[in-house]
Amino acid sequence: MIHVEVVFALPETVTSLTIEVVKGTTVEQAVIQSGIIEKHPEIDATALTLGVWNRTVKPNQELKEGDRIEIYRPLIADPKDARRKRAEKAKEEGRANKVTGGRPIER
C-alpha cells in the first residue's frame, strides 16, 4: 500500500484528501477512489485534466509513494488570445510599435 494526496482547488477553497491505495494504482483510479468527484459536482469526470506535482500526466500513469495528484479546472481564457489582445492594446496606446510590436523608438 502507498499513500497519495488528491487535491482540487477553487478560487475560495481547497480540498485535499490523503488516501491509501494499492501499489500499481493509476492516477485516474486514485481520483475515483478518493471520492473527491462526489464532493465536488463541478468536476467533469469524463474530461479530467490531471497532474502529479505540477506536471500534467496521463490518467493511466502509475502512482508512487507520496505523489500529489492535482485535478485541474478548465482555462477561462485562451492564453494566446489574451496575449494577442494585450499586444493590440499596447499598440493602440502607443506603448508598442505598430509594425514590429516592439517598443517605439523615442526621438
Automatic annotation (TrEMBL):
Gene3D superfamilies: RnfH-like. Residues 82-107 are annotated as: Disordered. Belongs to the UPF0125 (RnfH) family. PANTHER family: UPF0125 PROTEIN RATB (PTHR37483:SF1). InterPro entries: Mopterin_synth/thiamin_S_b, RnfH, RnfH_sf. This is UPF0125 protein PTRA_a0963. NCBIfam families: PRK01777.1. It comes from Pseudoalteromonas translucida KMM 520. SUPFAM superfamilies: MoaD/ThiS.
